[in-house]
Amino acid sequence: MQEVYSKLWGKNSKGENIFIYTLENKYLKVEILNLGALIKKIEVKTKNKGNKNVVISYERIEDYEKNPAYIGAIIGRNSGRIKNGLLKIEDKEFCLEKNNGNNNLHGGINSISHKIWEVEIKKDRLSCKIKSAHLENGFPGNVEINVDYILKDNELILEYHAKTDIKTYINLTNHSYFNLSADDKLIYDDILEINADKLIKIDKDSLPYELMDLKNTIFDFRQTKKIQDFFKTEDEQKRLANNGIDHAYILNQSEKSPIIIYNEKSGIKMEVKTDNPAVVVYTANYFEDIGLKKHSGICFETQEAPNLFENENLNIRPFFTDSNHDYKRYTKLIFSEIE
Fold first, then answer.
1. 123: which residues sit within 8 A by CB, 6+ positions away?
2. b or e along 12-44 (b: 16 or more beta carbons within 10 Å of the residue's beta carbon)?
3. Are 302 and 61 spatial neighbours (Cβ–Cβ below 8 Å)?
4. Strands, E, within 133-171: which ranges?
5. 254-274 as b/e, with b when 16 or more CB fall inside 10 Å?
6. Which of 69, 77, 105, 155 is most buried, with most CB under 10 Å away?
7. Angle value at C-alpha 183, between 177 and 186, nearest 5 degrees
8. Three-state SS across 81-139?
9. pLDDT score recorded for residue 254
10. Per-residue pLDDT tens for 49-81?
């Protein structure tokens, strides 16, 4: 049996109503806000160890209203950084809002992650919708974005859909920070596997710019290992990410789940499946700046290769959406218990 319901949480500083929408069955309880269409809670119901919320959450509306780390939010129109805030589409150039040094980050200031979405409760899902006007934060096209949250047994499915009236660039993701530990410690004891042979190196401004083979590097998670093993060794790319991971992994195309993470003490396991070609893995390297514990969560930002990255050998190139070709992506989070 599945329940879908809502309740008024309160008002933000603008006097707008903030609602908590809940999807719940015998496996999971998921809370979504109409602010940023963000995930407030994913509670995994275990057989013998009680219920565990596996995402970093705030307890106050004002924290979600500010939300500098985009905790739980839908990110767009762009995920990650675009160098110099410059978007080139055919023979036209669009100057995007620069909100991260000289670059555009996560769509700019007051992007869709910090706005109120329209949410419709349906039988098997929450349908979250928002419109972004032509040249909002510099992005071309009048765009309608729809993100559906679907609960199916032990799976939480995110379906992304967007359509535009003129050719534009759209790259959406969710920015939830996961921590599967039994006692809310740091992520070091979580065990991670990523089915990827390469990632994109970053420069001093955290801009992705060049492919790197993962063989014989600390970033190689093709064989499962504790996240703490990564932090035991110094590395220049690790240093550039403020002593962590903030890199786009290029996912291998196979039937195997591209991402698996679990914690032996809590017994909780999560698999991530997606039709996106890349995932930015981010280990909350700047959480101390917002009063939270550094490395207390890990993001899996499934998306297009960031920074409009191109590579002909791996067939990586930006995907542009137009009036005849909608943007469609999905990400599936599958939760289970290990023995």
1. 4
2. beeeeebbbbbbbbebbbbbbbbbbbbbbbbbb
3. no
4. 143-152, 155-164, 168-169
5. eeebbbbbbbbebbbbbbbbb
6. 77
7. 45
8. EEHHHEEEECCEEEECCCCECCEEECCCCCCHHHCECEEEECCCEEEEEEEECCCECCE
9. 85
10. 789 999 999 999 999 999 999 999 999 999 999
198 near 309, Cβ under 8 Å? no
Tokens of 149: 């949250």
3-state secondary structure at position 195: coil
Burial of 318 (0-12, 13-18, 19+ CB in 10 A): middle
Question: Cβ(241)–Cβ(296) under 8 Å?
Answer: no
**Is this structure's pTM higher than 0.85?**
yes
Residue 104 to residue 171: CA distance in whole angstroms: 13
Q: Are 322 and 164 in contact (CB under 8 A)?
A: yes
Largest interatomic CA distance in the chain: 60
Has residue 183 got a pLDDT over 80? no
For residues 214 and 93, what is the distance between their CA atoms, to the nearest angstrom?
34
| Dihedral sign computed on CA atoms, order 189, 57, 147, 156 | positive
Write out the two tokens for 324.
């005849």
